[in-house]
Amino acid sequence: xxxxxxxxxxxxxxxxxxxxxxxxxxxxxxxxxxxxxxxxxxxxxxxxxxxxxxxxxxxxxxxxxxxxxxxxxxxxxxxxxxxxxxxxxxxxxxxxxxxxxxxxxxxxxxxxxxxxxxxxxxxxxxxxxxxxxxxxxxxxxxxxxxxxxxxxxxxxxxxxxxxxxxxxxxxxxxxxxxxxxxxxxxxxxxxxxxxxxxxxxxxxxxxxxxxxxxxxxxxx
Length: 220
Fold this sequence. Notes:
Blueprint: H1 2-8, E1 10-13, H2 19-35, E2 42-45, H3 47-50, H4 52-57, H5 61-71, E3 75-85, E4 107-113, E5 124-126, E6 163-165, E7 172-176, E8 181-183, E9 192-201, E10 216-219
């Protein structure tokens, strides 16, 4: 797994969560979003801070074992967020890297499918091995108002290298914060939700992040 991650910038964990666990996570997510009076689509950061159900999911034994292989023995959980695209959502995430949004040491995100994810409803797209190109800041056009100020330009992406990553609910994808990634828009007429958790190597120094409101040591 470590060799594969170092080469490609990502690994896929099939069936990390059972159907019942996913059902409980989505039910709890709906409850949290209702309590926080969050709208019908978008992103909500801080699920583990809002609910012990998500704090527990962040340290699932099988996930921690995989993270140890990729990161090392000392792991810190920083934060998590729900990305919810309801049936009316028709936009996808543009091509970007995560690193410019936090800098410091490199981080590792875990993208967990709470619904089946396919191209028609907004699955991830990546460029394998692109994390080896380093920090790219070409500031692509963000005039559409969808956020992602540090975007890659169209010419930064080689279409022949793009890989779609469809996922069944319960699957997880661990990826490096320099990996080029995007997502399709949701044109399925159905909801598509995902949980994205972010971890770091606990041996590395970092500034205090305002968004890491539930940070804790996973493994020391």
